[in-house]
Specification:
Blueprint (H helix, E strand, L loop, with lengths): L7 E5 L3 H11 L12 E6 L1 H14 L5 E5 L16 H7 L1 E5 L2 E7 L4 E6 L2 E6 L5 E7 L2 E15 L7 H4 L11 E11 L6 E4 L4 E5 L7 E5 L2 E3 L2 E8 L5 E5 L5 H9 L3
Parallel strand pairs: 1-2, 2-3, 3-16
Antiparallel strand pairs: 4-16, 5-6, 5-15, 7-9, 7-13, 8-9, 8-12, 9-10, 10-11, 12-15, 13-14
């Protein structure tokens, strides 16, 4: 629950649907600029919400975010309930903590990159050649060679996105777990992946990198021709999503597991 009078900022995607939905909302509340707000109200779809969350991470401004679905899927968003004032919805909203992954990638020529991922970090083959990856967990060798299209590490929030499409497990919020999921594995053929504690440090080393180049992607940010990738979840950059009572992200994650 929020305090009685949080200052709200309205952020709207440039889609026609979001702009139309924002027209009435703009007159229903006294909005403030984002830098002055206690809570950001984001109108659009999941992609736009993730864009705003990444901007918060980049600027080290970890303000709570309340999303309203004016996009397509809207898995991370709340529905539209025009009969309930926006200030009341924010006051009654449930808080969901989201810990992003920090990806630290080193390229074959020694350059280093660091990006955050809210959904997942993926390693993907760049050519028709199968990727070959060495997998270490907490510094210990767990798999000398994983051959396939690649591999990903997903958070609970991201476990219903790319991870689920790759037949990875759905992780309940609050589980403090990560999904390690292979992408079209060739060897070992029957390996389905693993569920790791959130505290685990995951490291991948690319085998035969010149012959089998691999790209690393933290949500939408890509680093090509990587040699090593290190992934950790970071509590220091924890984000907060707000959800209406009865419309929580946790409930939708449960629902996904019982779809037939």
């Amino acid at each position: 629950m929020m305090r009685n009078d949080p200052k709200l900022a309205l952020i709207v995607s440039d889609s026609a649907k979001a702009q139309a939905g924002a027209a009435a909302l703009r007159h229903s509340h006294s909005w403030v600029p984002p830098e002055e707000a206690d809570v950001l109200v984001v109108l659009g779809g999941d992609g736009f919400l993730l864009h705003i969350l990444h901007e918060l991470l980049d600027n080290d401004e970890l303000k709570p975010v309340y999303g309203m679905n004016l996009g397509t899927v809207g898995f991370l968003m709340n529905g539209q309930h025009d009969h309930v004032p926006i200030a009341q919805r924010i006051r009654e909203a449930h808080r969901v903590p989201v810990r992003p992954l920090c990806m630290q990638a080193t390229t074959q020529d020694g350059r280093k990159f660091s990006y955050y991922a809210i959904n997942e970090v993926s390693l993907l083959r760049e050519t028709r050649q199968t990727a070959k990856l060495e997998v270490r967990i907490n510094g210990r060798m767990r798999m000398e060679e994983l051959a396939g299209d690649g591999v990903l590490v997903a958070t609970p929030v991201g476990s219903t996105a790319y991870n689920l499409s790759a037949n990875g497990p759905i992780l309940p919020l609050g589980s403090r777990m990560l999904a390690l999921t292979p992408l079209s594995p060739f060897r070992p053929r029957r390996w389905k992946g693993a569920i790791l504690p959130e505290s685990a440090e995951v490291e991948f080393r690319v085998r035969e990198p010149k012959k089998r180049p691999v790209a690393a992607v933290a949500d939408q940010k890509e680093v090509r021709d990587v040699s090593t990738v290190r992934i950790i979840a970071t509590a220091e950059m924890e984000l907060t999503l707000l959800f209406d009572p009865g419309y929580t992200l946790e409930e939708r994650i449960f629902a996904e597991q019982f779809q037939v």
